[in-house]
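Justification of computing resources. Each target in the renewal requires a structure prediction run like the one illustrated here; the chain below, 112 residues long, is used simply to show the kind of job we budget for.
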Amino acid sequence: MIDLDLPPDLPRLRTLRAWHAMCLRAVDTAITAAEQREAEHKRGEEQRPPTPDWMIERGIGQGAPPTEVHVGGCHMAKNARGVTREQALQALVAGIRACIHCRPDTELGILE
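Resulting structure tokens:
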């Protein structure tokens, strides 16, 4: 048994019991909220579409032309959409710049 220095009288013991029950409810509420956040995060990870293998970045604005080709998941790609390997190859052959960070030209076997 834990040796606690508790008051001897009933009113103070009941006050301590009520306080600890209140703290326990607060901890239980925090645990429930943390479990919900964790479950939502896990669901989000499971439902996230896979990262495309190749991406083409476009300039800003409606109908902006392609500006750069990236390997899927490149941290430098901002306004990009996923494309097939063939589309990435065609873009590079057509003169669209290859990202200097992820080097899709090297990954695709095309050297500038």
